[in-house]
Design brief:
single chain; 534 residues; Rossmann fold; Hect, E3 ligase catalytic domain fold; 3 domains; five-stranded mixed β-sheet; four-stranded mixed β-sheet
Length: 534
């Protein structure tokens, strides 16, 4: 590198200082670096024109450092002649990045100096030492990354939380609380500690908010926006007639505690930590914690759950059912069409979409709405086709119920065994030919499968869920209707105004397998489907 000078012959120098951790920003590291840089500049009679500072930012590969980027831009503009750093690892911890940056500086006629290493990087020996020192810095960060990964997975195995504490919990250090929702908000602020700082404890106010959110959303009648609006007027009683308005805690350094928004509710509904579990997302290649990713593993956490597993799973089900189906439009509730995503046109295979015309609701072929094909399928009244589907389900459930209510499981199994033995005797004696024997054997095998106790129990459990809801269909909300139909049906096909064929869901299949055996011979609806009319 060739060292440039000002018109007066004085070399223009700039310094660069950096610390990685936010808690180092207020420490002595930055001041010590600046002192060393200034002393080094004075010893060489250089004019120190500026010191660039990146506080609380890593020097790993791919990291964004605003001051560092400005330093490189100023080098291209010829604003200085030499860069001074206290140590090489303050400048770069990645060998490839370090050498690339030094090459950029060299192309701009800018030299580089390091105080601690005391090396002249313009000589061949200095360049060799620079390569060695850069490699050591890279080895250090690789080793640190590995140790970080091991430490995080070990914390997860112990049930200890990784990262920022989620809304609803705190560290329990009430006597020295620094939580945004602590002073002036939490009734435990300044009192005796409720935890040791290692295990999360329920925040006395935020935990009530979390429970309220899950109870409302799992019911299926409130959207995330409506829940946020409700929380913004929600008052939490503290006793002695004192009520405190609920608020979200914000994000340190980005936002302050304030009203709830839809995004806050959405993030809250995704947190499996509220069930007492601890999700471990792993560590990315750059050593950072993988955020907003599906967990690699779930561990049992040391913290108390705020939401039971059943409520959490119901909330996830609601999230899936509400996907691409807005609940609120211009402040008004949007009607949910229970067959959306299930009902298809029996002619062109297009999705049947819910549409409205005044007070009436219909299903219309999506291909017609998008003008992608000409199809003879007419628009159909929503209530009529929904009732057709319900009647079909009721008939299946009724037949399955009659079968299990009318006969005893053991006597059925014994009867099947006796029929099988009789068929076998007739076949061996020559009174029954091979095809007839195989037909009888296949029928009896199906009967045996149907009478397996595990399947029998599954049928009873499914019937207990479906019978009361089908009987009370008129009393169900549109969301509850959609959830029930999704439980039983994978796809349904419509031709004109009638239900043509149905593909049952895996969960519903145990109730239908016995009937399927007798209907599939003449079925034209495809494998696993059930034709509903001739």
């Amino acid at each position: 590198m060739t060292q440039g000078k000002t018109r007066s012959g004085t070399c223009r120098a700039v310094g660069y200082r950096r610390v990685s951790m936010p808690d180092q920003v207020n420490g002595h590291s930055l001041d010590a670096q600046e002192t060393n840089i200034r002393r080094y500049s004075d010893e060489h009679n250089w004019q120190l024109v500026e010191i660039y500072v990146d506080a609380g930012i890593s020097a790993k590969k791919g990291s964004r450092r605003p001051a560092f980027e400005r330093l490189l831009r100023d080098a291209k503009d010829g604003k200085y002649d030499v860069v001074i750093v206290d140590k090489i690892d303050r400048f770069y911890r990645h060998l490839g990045g370090l050498l690339t940056t030094l090459d950029q500086l060299n192309s701009c006629g800018v030299s580089f100096a390091s105080v601690q290493e005391k090396l002249d990087f313009t000589t061949p020996w200095g360049k060799l030492m620079l390569t060695v020192l850069g490699m050591l810095a890279e080895i250090y960060i690789d080793n640190l990354r590995q140790e970080t990964r091991k430490g995080k997975i070990q914390r997860a195995r112990k049930g200890l939380w990784l990262g920022a504490i989620p809304f609803g919990y705190c560290n329990g250090i009430c006597s020295r609380c620094t939580d945004p929702n602590g002073d002036g908000y939490c009734p435990n602020f300044g009192q005796a500690d409720k935890g040791n700082g290692k295990v999360m404890v329920p925040h006395p106010i935020e935990s009530q908010v979390v429970k309220r959110v899950y109870e409302q959303y799992a019911g299926g009648c409130m959207s995330q926006r409506l829940i946020a609006d409700d929380l913004n007027i929600f008052q939490i009683p503290l006793g002695n007639g004192i009520n405190i308005p609920a608020r979200q805690k914000g994000a340190p350094g980005r936002s302050i505690p304030g009203p709830f928004g839809r995004d806050v509710i959405r993030d809250m509904l995704k947190r499996v930590a509220y069930t007492g579990k601890l999700p471990y997302q792993g560590v990315a290649e750059d050593g950072r914690h993988r955020k907003r990713c599906a967990p690699l593993e779930l561990f049992q956490g040391s913290h108390l759950p705020l939401v039971d597993e059943a409520t959490f799973q119901r909330a996830q089900e609601v999230r899936i059912l509400n996907d691409r189906n807005p609940r609120v439009n211009n402040g008004h509730l949007v009607r949910i069409y229970p067959l959306t995503g299930i009902l298809y046109c029996g002619y062109c295979g297009g999705h049947m979409r819910g549409v409205s015309a005044g007070p009436r609701y219909y299903y219309k072929d999506g291909n017609q709405l998008d003008h992608t094909c000409e199809c003879p399928q007419p628009i159909v009244r929503a209530q009529a086709i929904e009732q057709s589907v319900v009647k079909w389900l009721q008939s299946v459930v009724s037949i399955a119920s009659d079968e299990m209510d009318a006969q005893d499981l053991q006597s059925q199994a014994l009867g099947v065994e006796q029929r099988y033995e009789r068929a076998r005797e007739l076949y061996l004696s020559g009174e029954l030919d091979r095809p007839e024997y195989e037909t009888e054997k296949n029928r009896l095998d199906i009967e045996k499968d149907r009478l397996r106790f595990s399947e029998f129990s599954a049928k009873i459990a499914l019937l207990d869920v479906m019978r009361p809801q089908l009987d009370g269909w008129s009393e169900l909300s549109q969301f509850e209707r959609k959830r029930l139909l999704r439980l039983a049906i994978e796809t349904a096909y419509l031709r004109k105004n009638a239900l043509a064929a149905v593909q049952p869901s895996v969960a519903f299949l145990p109730l239908i397998q016995h009937q399927l055996y007798y209907t599939q011979a003449g079925c034209s609806s495809g494998e696993g489907g059930i034709r509903t009319r001739g």
